Amino acid sequence: MAKNASDLATGTRKNGNHKNGTARPGLRFGRYFTPEGSHAYDLIEWERRTAAIIGEKGQVIFEQKDVEVPRSWSQLAINVVAQKYFRGGPGSPERETSVRQIIDRVVETLAKWGRDGSYFATEEDAENWAQELRYLLVTQHASFNSPVWFNFGVPNRAQQGSACFINSVQDSMESILELVKTEGMLFKFGSGTGSNLSVLRSSKEQLSGGGTASGPVSFMKGYDSFAGSIKSGGTTRRAAKMVILNADHPDVLDFIRCKAEEEKKAWALIEAGYNVGFNVPGGAYDSVQFQNANHSVRANDDFMRAVIDDKQWTTRAVVDGRVIDTYKARDLWKEIAEAAATSGRRSPRRRGFAAIRACSSTPPSRTGTWSRTPAASTPPILARSSFSSTTPPVTCFR
Predict the structure, then answer these.
(1) How would you class 90 by CB atoms within 10 Å of its CB: exposed for 0-12, middle for 13-18, buried for 19 or more?
(2) Contacts of 69 (CB under 8 A, 6+ apart)
(3) Residue pair 99/81 in contact by the 8 Å Cβ criterion
(4) Residue 396: per-residue pLDDT
(5) 57 pLDDT exceeds 50?
(6) HSE-up of 44 (CA within 13 Å, CB side)?
(7) pLDDT digits over 124-174, tens only?
(8) Which of 212, 271, 286, 368 is most buried, by the most CB atoms less than 10 A from its CB?
(9) Three-state SS for 83?
(10) Which of the listed CATH numbers 3.20.70.20, 1.10.760.10, 2.40.50.1070, 3.40.50.300 matches domain 164-387?
(11) Could you give phi then psi for residue 372, rounded to 5 degrees?
């Protein structure tokens, strides 16, 4: 699409490929997938089909007739796009009815932003870019993440495009409850969230006003319930979140076990005749906690060395750093492995393990402590940041 990589890197101060020969700033784009002067949709065979999702007992869960789609698309792709990504109320005049509409909505929004921001050298470059992107999307050579399809170009809707947001929290009730609001609004517009709750004092520590703290695992129940209640992007898709706790947090053992224990409750309900499906009101998994989040233990080099050398591992109070409990590191390691195996048998959101170590690579321009590495194999990221999923290898991080 772009003439060469240097055009992207330098902002393309030269414009020799255009007829007027004048030098103008901005990106230059030619045609690669589409012939010069053509519209991407003219290269596609279109047809009308019915999008339908049928339940296991034959009931119609979703249906939209006369949907315009590329002939090459599978029925599964059509069903997903029509149910999840078409905007407008079902049966209303505002309802999208064609793949052309959703692609145009996204591409034209992005192209307008590019024009408004003077990203393109000329209008010809902007049009070439838009047609090439249309072709990549309509032929399924590429696709955006869900928040883009949910939000971009929809009037009166946040133009939220990042797949996931990493949120921070402080050890105060105000901050704990503010995180509920932050996550809820991000879920509303289709994004996932992640938080490291290790700054919250443990259930083995005292409150400043007297009494014992609830601990992060207790508040996780509330966060998980809101994630299950708020449909991601306003559709039937469940919200997605990730929760991290440091290996030296006093509640780490409760954290390790909590999801697996709830999983076992779900198995008992299934044996008793409750529905085994996810997203089924009143079903087995609708009746237990921690079904909307990945849980991961954040461990540093000291913990890993303690596992290798079969040494003791201590947890320390969040407030004053005193030793709370002592375990064999290998016992905790085994607990993590067993919990991962247990909760991973059926649960769509599994348990993970984040090994924190120093990298020899160049540090980022932003400063801070790495909060987590996401479940989507993305690079490590800082708290209070956002990202979209990629899949490079991640071998080590700070």
Answers:
(1) exposed
(2) 46, 47, 48, 49, 78, 81, 98, 99
(3) yes
(4) 28
(5) yes
(6) 22
(7) 999 999 999 999 999 999 999 989 999 999 999 999 998 889 999 999 999
(8) 286
(9) helix
(10) 3.20.70.20
(11) -175, 165
